[in-house]
Amino acid sequence: MNGKEGGHIVQRFDAQLGSLKDLVLEMGRLVLQQVRDAAQALEEGDTGLARQVVHRDRDINTLDMKGQELCLELLATRQPVASDLRFVMAMSQAVNNLERAADETKKLGYVVSRVYGENDLQPIPSLFQDARHMAASAVELLEDALEAVEELDVDKAVAVVQGDEQLNEAFHAGLRRLATFLFEDPRNVRHVIEAVFVLKALERVGDHATNLAEFVIYAVKGKDVRYVKAEHLSSGFLDAG
Amino acid sequence: MNGKEGGHIVQRFDAQLGSLKDLVLEMGRLVLQQVRDAAQALEEGDTGLARQVVHRDRDINTLDMKGQELCLELLATRQPVASDLRFVMAMSQAVNNLERAADETKKLGYVVSRVYGENDLQPIPSLFQDARHMAASAVELLEDALEAVEELDVDKAVAVVQGDEQLNEAFHAGLRRLATFLFEDPRNVRHVIEAVFVLKALERVGDHATNLAEFVIYAVKGKDVRYVKAEHLSSGFLDAG
């Protein structure tokens, strides 16, 4: 933290940075719960839970606006520099990404409503088998990313970026399985399209977890690693000048 | 602009804000060209042009990093407040959205390569009829959004937000037509899926144009309108305290 000012002001500033982090973590926990509930709604065909997920997205939008306001206030009143400034910018981006991850869970909620709601579509739960594993991985990545935010832990952040590669592979494997299913019985096209939406949404949740992790690296190391390949994120690379 | 400091410093700060805007506009023009080229590649089945679109995405990523650095430098060295601070934050978000719009054009490039590249897929150009109209609308929205950025023109920005509603309707109409096509002949499933990707990517370009417009409104009016319905964006609403 910025140590150029007197102790009293620095303390208050630290408290403000802390409350920004708290907001991000609170928002993150809500989004995590949304992913878990959306996955459970899909697993159990629970349209009531799916509606709750869709409805709760408003709370996350409220936190998004609150987060952006808090960042702006911090920038305007505290005028941070160096690592404090990077931290505020990283948290602003983290808020943005959490909101977008939540949007993906809302999409999952809509799929559950369409597939298991009152209509003429006979659900085929076996199509969502890959989704189950992907949801578990997405939850884990997001948990780890939030831990990386909480502890500003670069090693954990790097592990998230690298872990997302596996989720991406699972996504493509899932798509291939769905295509096979479709070739065998093209009449199931609507079901397959819904399953594609599900896999895509979960893959995007992983992407947003990765973005969170990248912002942690940026905040701590001052390096913009968004366009660096995951396998190059060794600590040697991050510590090079 | 911030008028609290002496004339000399203010002038230099204005110049820096101006160069940030120039970077956003330069990036915007590149993205606009990417949308146009991707649409043309699709229209003409031109895989060479499609490859160029994919390749040029790197230049846009470079501008993304440059833009974020410039924002950070401005925040750190100039410590702007009020409308200047909002302007910098809005431009930071604009850069982020332009990069994401460019990512969509890259996806279009990949579709063209898959559909018209060397493989066993016999292209069905009629499937891309809706894409032509949607591409024209997306280009127009992005042009108008960039004009709104250039002139910090709230009315133009509001028109973009409202115009995007029509693009969203065109997207859903296009999806319905593709579904009909699929029901008539399920063997074309791969073509239809590619066409869905195309419509989705164009719809997303419109969303990013809308985001740019929303950041203009935010920079000028200080109001976060991301969660306000388009029809409520009358100037009366925006001028209310």
Describe the structure.
The structure is a homodimer of 241-residue chains. Chain A is mostly helical and 241 residues long. Chain A has a single domain, classed as Methane Monooxygenase Hydroxylase, Chain G, domain 1 (Up-down Bundle). Helix content of chain A is 82%, strand content 0%. Chain A has seven helices and no strands. The first copy, chain A, has helices at 7-44, 47-78, 82-116, 129-151, 154-184, 189-221, 235-239. In chain A, α3 runs antiparallel to α6 and α4 (129-151) runs parallel beside α6 (189-221). The longest helix of chain A is centred in the N-terminal third of the chain and has 38 residues, at 7-44. The radius of gyration of chain A is 20 Å and the shape is flat. The interface between A and B is medium-sized, with 27 and 27 residues.
Highest-level CATH class of chain A? Mainly Alpha
* Strand tally of chain A: 0
This entry's quaternary arrangement is homodimer
CATH architecture of chain A, by name, is Up-down Bundle
> Mind telling me the CATH superfamily name of chain A?
Phosphate transport system protein phou homolog 2, domain 2
Supply the number of helical segments of chain A. 7
Helix content of chain A: over 70%
Number of domains of chain A: 1
Major sheet characteristics of chain A: none
User: Compute the gyration radius of chain A: what is it?
Assistant: 20 Å
Strand content of chain A: under 5%
Low-confidence stretches of chain A: 1-5
Q: What structural category characterises the helix and strand content of chain A?
A: mainly alpha
- The geometry of chain A reads as flat
Largest interface, counted with CB-CB under 8 A? A-B, 27 and 27 residues
Task: Return the average pLDDT of chain A rounded to an integer.
Answer: 91
Span from first to last CA of chain A? 21 Å
Q: What order do the helices and strands of chain A follow?
A: HHHHHHH
What CATH calls the topology of chain A is Methane Monooxygenase Hydroxylase, Chain G, domain 1
